[in-house]
Amino acid sequence: MVEALVAAGVTLASAGAVYVMAAARVVKQYERGVVFRLGRLRPEVRGPGFTMIVPFVDRLQKVNMQVVTMPVPAQEGITRDNVTVRVDAVVYFKVTGPAEAVVRVEDYRFAVSQMAQTSLRSIIGKSELDDLLSNREKLNQGLELMIDSPAVEWGVTIDRVEIKDVSLPETMKRSMARQAEADRERRARVINADAELQASKKLAEAAKEMSEQPAALQLRLLQTVVAVAAEKNSTLVLPFPVELLRFLERAQQAVPTAPAQPPQSAPQPVQEQLPPAEPRMEPDSERSVSGQD
To answer: How far apart, in whole angstroms, are the C-alpha atoms of residue 163 and residue 39?
Structure first.
């Protein structure tokens, strides 16, 4: 009798251990458990920790509650200003209703992915190229709203949507580069023209000051000579302005001239009066010889 009781106790203990092992479930902190009893959804959602279900009657399905990062494949479309682009994005979402995510949609991840792709193509067709390149915050908000509207019924909340990259054709890249280059050249020319205008005003003021003080022009000329000589050139080119000639001419006219004196006659050379020469008498011998001849 005792042996039968011991055997029955061991059997019951074994059966209880098997039942506990079959019914015991552990739900992690970032998960929630949805229980189906004979195919019907139980209203309560099992929280994290140890929980028990009825073996062979209940089925526990765990739902991840973490934020899911899902890349959206690149979508090719034509913008409103007729430019072909390829745009890819990334979607951040999480499950807020575990029961709805399991019951209302077959695969909420696949559903969110398809909705994100269709919404991205729709955003491309409604936007212009400049908006895709520079005004992405507004497009991200619009894309998030388009995806979040149907996802709320699935127990999914869209955290945020970001457009990652916009691929343009090579011809469009070259056109944009030429446009940017032309715009920078235009700004450079405007800046140079503005600088010339300011320089001309300053030079006009300097010319006005120099016209009142002619000596300043000569000082400026000397400064130019010093600046040129500092370059250690073998040839020195010295500009000689016309204003300096005028200044020197006015300075020459301002100097008083001395009265002219009559010219003095040059002294005549004194000639010495010599006594008249006496006639020379030839000797008789020479006279007689000349007669015979």
So the answer is: 41
